[in-house]
Amino acid sequence: MLQAIKEAKKAFELGEVPVGAIVVMKDKIIARGHNQVERLNDSTAHAEIIALTSAFNYLGSKYLPDAAIYITVEPCLMCAGAMFWSKIQRVVFGADDEKNGYRKYVIPCPSIEALGVAPSPFHPKTELIPGVLKEECGGLMKNFFKDRR
After folding, report:
1. Quick one: 7 exposed, middle or buried, by C-beta within 10 A (0-12, 13-18, 19+)?
2. Which of 7, 52, 71, 131 sees the fewest Cβ atoms within 10 Å?
3. DSSP string, 1-50
């Protein structure tokens, strides 16, 4: 997660919303990304999308079943969907994003919850680990938006 935070700091310095992501396989970073929405004038240029695309290119594959992605902030629904299609093994994120995170849009389903399964936009085989270095990741976001207001 510390490497993802470094990516988020790059975004911060460039005036982008400070989100960073890295993709790891076999304890090796194979891809990095930070938000570039403003720089590329592209609302889909999120850190996760950039990191996933880089990982696909590195591996020459459209799937990442043996990889983990570390993201400084809870992914949005678009990024969660991209991770679903990538079949990524593990999603690790830091700070919650109540305003734009995927959980805002996942509607609880009593019949599914009765089975002990929480609704999720991720692939069924994907392990989700929230809250890693939550305070450090959230602090970057708070400072970024505090400076903007």
Report:
1. buried
2. 131
3. -HHHHHHHHHHHHTTS---EEEEEETTEEEEEEE--HHHHT-TT--HHHH
Amino acid 149: pLDDT: 64
Q: Is 48 a catalytic residue?
A: yes
Set 7, 16, 48, 74: catalytic member: 48
CA torsion, ordered 49, 54, 59, 62, to nearest 10 deg: 30
Q: Look up the pTM and report it.
A: 0.92
Computed from CA positions of residues 5, 80, 130, 91, in that sequence, does the dihedral angle turn out positive or negative?
Answer: negative
Half-sphere exposure of 136 (CA within 13 A, CB side): 15
Percentage of the chain lying above the pLDDT 70 cut: 92
Strands 68-73, 90-95: pairing is: parallel
Question: What's the rounded Cα separation, in Å, for the pair 23 and 144?
Answer: 24
Residue pLDDT, tens place only, 91-120: 999 999 999 999 888 877 666 566 666 678
Closest CA to 66 of 33, 124, 23: 23
